[in-house]
Amino acid sequence: MKIGEIPLNRDWLRVFEEEGIRYLYPPQEAAIKKIFEGRNLVVSIPTASGKTLIAYIAILRAFSLGLKSVYIVPLRALAMEKYEELKRFEKFGMKVALAMGDYDSPAGYLRHYDVVIATSEKMDSILRHELEYAYELGVIIVDEVHLLGEEERGPTLEMVISKLRSLNEEAQIIALSATIKNSEELARWLGGEHIYSEFRPVPLKLGVYFDDTLLFSDGEEKEIKRDSLGIGNLVKKSIRAGGQVLIFVNRRKSAESLADKLGRKIEKLLEEEREELERIARGIMEEEYTIYSEKLAKMIMRGVCFHHAGLTNSQRKAVEDAFKRGLLKVIVATPTLAAGINLPSRTVIVRDVTRYNGFASVHIPVMEVKQMLGRAGRPKYDKYGEGIIYARSENRAIEYMEMYIRGEVEEIESKLSNESALRTHVLALIASNMVNTEDEIYAFFEKTFYGFKMPMEYLHKKVERILEFLEENEFIRRKRIILPTPLGKRTSDLYIDPYTVLIFKKCYPLPYDEFCVLHTISCTPNMLPLFPRRSELEELFSLAYSHQLALDEFEIDSEVFFAALKTASVLLDWANEVSQDLIVRRYDIGPGDLHSRVEMADWLLYAFAEIGKILRYEHYREVEKLRLRVKYGVREELLPIVSIRGIGRVRARRLFDAGYNSIERLREARIEELIRIPGIGRRLAEEILRQVK
């Protein structure tokens, strides 16, 4: 079927044709026919088989009918990608919004948009504030629906889908996934059609590499000499043939080390790309010179780079864009890159199929490995892709062939019975007035994927324990009906775990101490703490004894206690204007680690102050100031200046030291005076004066 034959506005379809999409793949055609019949769908097809186009056609059909759509994705980077792509249709009158973060804001403004792209957490937050938003939706796209089975994010995704279905039975649900074992079961849960296919536009050859042998699952063998890196010659072979290579390893240090070593081999193969790679490297250095950006720039110039959560958003984007343009030949990544971002390559090598889970080294799930391998094969560029697992012996190679290449992926299981998740989501149901009795709570959970698959008796007992916990800690009142207390309502609106509030409560009676507050928020289940190295423990012990802390290592898990000490130290250094470069080196973290913790701390300090207002905490204003200091990374005297757009922490300090220590002083400044300050050009000086006046 030609794309032009889809019964939609011809100009809309021309957007896809201009990208080179002329014909639909068989699974796309089957899915789109069902979409126009108004059916719910679960589409389970391999990576790079065109799931996104199916979603966009469903959204365009809804738009043509005057209906609104929401596109739910697991990651912010993925949300940005979809937002940029859907903005192409704004010239036809479609209004597109991006909804991420800021979990304590009403969603009324979203009603003015035809399409909203949101993470599952943001969608959950929207429904906590305004259930009515669900009534306006005509189409709900759920991307990467197999993440229902993930421990951390699965419960939230399951609750969002269940709430939307419960509130709006008329909305069409399109759930998209790579191949999963029980996708048909998911389709039955959603009352929809099941589209399953193993079709790939670029055929995928899967194999294992060991000793000097590359052995494919079809029996084909190739001899490729193993070098000192194990996979160096395998990588060079693909690049010489005009391909690019994605390599997955299990640790950040491994990603950086392998990228550095490969770079020395690969830079000799670069030709006309050198000049453009040097330009990209210069851009990274000019944005912010640190030892980390210097490391990144050096690797990029060699045509190889690493990719992990330690990079800032702009650094990640620079690496991904350079790879998409074919300039970077190799990316060595941790598995976060496999989760949905559109970054295919000729060859994918999974070097590590185990990872440390906090207790021991365990095998990565089959589905995760298949998702990585599925990135192989670039549509429009490659006749086939190669997905290869590296093995350190022939015995291991045989094991990996059976387990990962010939083996079946795991079934998706609900993770909703996790007590931490239940605690948060039961309170949210009550606080948003979606349920007001125990019978209504149980009836709701019967409609979840958990209730669809499992006997409810076990969950009933857990829910009863959760209700007792919420009542005992004054989040709810149970009489004839169940109602939230002001504390319970605010906790739910702030999108924090009720247990987080119990931790906050331990800090409120103590004398105000910045470090104690930062340590307290870092102990909560809503913070992802920074775990210390063994060599840091002695200094952290000393730090713990120099402050009166709300919690000690006996009240909470000792690992969490010491990780919270390190996290609090990082945040306090940042708020005291220690340079990013020094923080990165001192604590052995990446800039992305720092910025993500600052973002989490911004949210948790806001929540700490807001809950403090309800509980009559006398120092909430000091916490509000601390929050701004952490957000901007400055001492208190810089807060008025750093709030000016375009002025970061470094420029704010330079302005202050030059005598511009208030908005009033800046109003009196002249452009010629401002441009003498390092880092402030004429355009920025004009913008500063425009804002302050």
What do you see in this structure?
This protein is of the alpha/beta class and 693 residues long. It has 5 domains: 3-196, Rossmann fold (3-Layer(aba) Sandwich); 204-405, Rossmann fold (3-Layer(aba) Sandwich); 419-493, Winged helix-like DNA-binding domain superfamily/Winged helix DNA-binding domain (Arc Repressor Mutant, subunit A, Orthogonal Bundle), CATH 1.10.10; 498-633, Sec63 N-terminal domain-like fold (Orthogonal Bundle), CATH 1.10.3380.20; 638-692, Orthogonal Bundle (DNA polymerase, domain 1), CATH 1.10.150.20. The protein has 31 helices and 19 strands. The strands form 4 sheets. It has an 8-stranded mixed sheet. The protein has a 7-stranded parallel sheet with strand order 3-4-2-5-6-1-7, sandwiched between helices. A hairpin with a 4-residue loop joins strand 9 (213-216) and strand 10 (221-223). Helix 20 packs antiparallel against helix 21 (514-522), helix 21 crosses helix 25 and helix 23 crosses helix 26 (620-632). The longest helix has 24 residues, at 591-614. The chain is globular and about 70 Å long. The model has no long low-confidence stretch (mean pLDDT 92).
Q: What does this entry show, briefly?
A:
The chain is of the alpha/beta class and 693 residues long.
